[in-house]
Amino acid sequence: MASEKEIIKGCIKGEKKYQKLLFDQYAPVLLTVCMRYSHDKANAEDILQEGFIKIFDNLKRFRSEGSLEGWMKRIMVNTALNHYRANLKHIYHKDVDDYAEVIAGNSKIRADLYAKDILAVVQQLPPGYRTVFNMFDIEGYSHKEIAEKLGVSENTSKTQLLKARKLLRKLLADYEK
Amino acid sequence: MSEYDNIGKFVKEQLEGHQEQPSGQVWQSLEKQLPSAPAASGFKWWYAVAGTVVVAAAVYFFAFSSGDDVSTEKVHKKPDTEIVQQAKPEKENNEQKSLIVEEKTEQSQSAQAVQNNSTPESPVRQKKDISEMKVTDDGSTESPDVNTIKSREPGINTPQNVAEGGEIVVQNDTPVSMNPDPVFDGNEDDNAGKARAVVFSENPEICAGEKVTLWASGGVAYEWSTGDTDSVITVVPDQSIGYSVTVWNDNEKKITHNFNIQLKECGMLYVPNAFTPNADGYNDIFKAYGVAIESFRMQIMNKNGLIVFESENLNEGWDGTYDDRLMPAGVYLYRIVYTGVEGDTKTKSGTLTLIR
Questions:
Q1: Which of the two ends of chain B, N or C, has the fewest CB atoms closer than 10 A to its terminal CB?
Q2: In Å, how far from its chain's centre is CA B77?
C-alpha cells in the first residue's frame, strides 16, 4: 500500500499507476462534493474530471502541511463555482416573495434519512440556492466571500441562504412521505 | 426535530465522509487527458494538462443602489463563454505546459501573435494592446438573450434607505455580449505552448454610478490595471475608461486582455423621504428631482391604498392635501415609473413621511 507521499510523488512524475491510485482513493469523497453543487451525477462527474485535471496539474504546488483531501476538496468547490458562473446565463431566479416566513417544526425529518437521499434533495434545489447553501453552511464561506465569488450582493446571499434552508426543510420533509 | 432546526449542520454531518462511486467513464476520459509517463523517467516533466488560461470573462453589472435595499433582487446574467478546453500532451523536454482553449465560435479576426514572454508588459505594450483590441472589438458572434433581462422592481424602501437618497434603485443587469478574441497565441515552434483567451470584449456601456463586476478566471494570479490582484473586482467608473487584466497560469505564462467601459447618459432620480407642508417656504411640497428623464409618473398613496396624489409632471409635487383637506401626518408610499434618456423604464418606490 503506497503512502500518501509516495502517491503524490508518483503523480507528479506522471506515473499512471499512482494517478489511478489517487483517483480511486479520493474520487468517491470528491464526487460527493461535486454532487452537492450539481443537479445530477453526470454534471458532477464533469466537474470531478475537470477538477482532477487541475489536481494532477497542480499537485507539485501542494504543500504537505495541509490536508491533501481538504486541498482537493477546495479545488473541486472552485471548479464547481466556475461551472456555476459559466452557466449563470441560463439561470436566473426571481424571488421577490417574502423570505421572512420561516416554517418551523410543522413536520419532522426522520433521523434515518440516508446521505444519498439528502444528496438527492440538495440536488433538487435551484442552482443559486444550492450554491449559496453549500458555500455557507457546508464550506463555511462568509456572506461577504460568497458575494465576491458569485458577484452578487451580500443581501442576495443571505436571502438565498434562508430560502435554500427553508426549501430544503420542505423537500426533506416531503421526501420521506 | 433538531436536524430540522439546523438544516445546514444536519446536511453537513450527514454528508460528511459520504462516498459516491464515479462511473468508470470518468477515469477513462480523464486518463486520455493525462499523457503517459515516459518509459525511462530519468528526467522530470510535468503534465501538460490545462490550468485554464481562459481569461474567461464576464462582465456583469448590477446596478448601484447605495441603500442596498433589502427587498430587491437581482437577475444575474453572465455571458456564456463557450469554451471547450482540451489538454494537450507535452511536447518534449521541458516544464512548459501546452494549453489550448478551443473556441466554438469562429474567430472574427485572425489570431494576433503576441510574444510569449513572462516579463511584465511595459505600459507602451499595454497601450498598443488597447488599440489593437479596439480594432478587433467587432463582429460579436454571440448576443445575449435580451428578452430575458428584466428591470427589477424594487420593493418599498425603508425610510432610512430612502434617506440616503439619490440612488438609482432599479437595477438592471446588462449582459455583455461575447466576442471571442485571440489575445494571445504563443509560438508553438519554440515549445512555448499555445494559449488563447476567450474574452468578453464588447465595450460595455453603463450608467454613471453603476457598479461593474469584472471577472477573470482560470489563472493562478491576476493583475488588473487598477492594481487589484483578485480574480473578481468591482469598479464604479466615473468616466469612460479602459481596463486591462493580466492572467498568469502556473507556468508563469500570461495573457493580457484590455477592454473599455463607456459611460452613457442615463436618467437619474432623487426622491426625498419627508416633507413639511406648513407653508414656511421650506420643504412644503413633496416632489422628485430628476435629470435626463424622458417620462415620469408618480403616485402617492396612504396606508390604506388611497391614491392621494398623482402626476406625470416631474416638476409637480404633492402639497399634503387630498380633496382640499389636509392629510394627517404619517407615512405614505410613493411609486414612480420613469424612463431615462437611455430608454430604460424603471420603477422606484418607497415611503415618505408627512410631518406637521
A1: N
A2: 8
